[in-house]
Amino acid sequence: MEQQQYLEKLMYIRHILELIQGEIEYSGAPLFEVFGKTANRVQEPYRSWMLDLKRRVEARGGQSFRGIWEACTETKLKELHLKSRHMRELSEVGMYLGQMDVRTGRTSMQMYLENLGAEIEETRQEITAKKRIGNWLGVMSGLFLVIVLF
What we know:
By secondary structure, this protein is an all-alpha fold. 82% of the residues lie in helices and 0% in strands. The chain has one domain.
């Protein structure tokens, strides 16, 4: 069950990044507007993550976009308890997303989404295998009890 919840978290993050990518590509809006629009379409804790990104990017204060993205991601998504690898990869998205070269940002985002899709598929396969093993163990233990009792 725990693995299923983790899978749902990864799928929701992929959904959010696809929303961001779509907004950037089709509206061409500044990033703070993209984060604001995305915040209206997602649930907590992702909403507070997007709103914090919007607020900090709008204010900037001389901080790089990458720094803002990493700080917001680490503080707002800490409660998701993502594996360190997934958290690191999500933080790295900010390295390319804030660049002026839209093509590089788009390519990097697409690459991350493909990797995340592969991770999601791998996790699904693990869950399926564990369910199969659990079902077989249930059948075998039932047969064992029948044999022992008779």
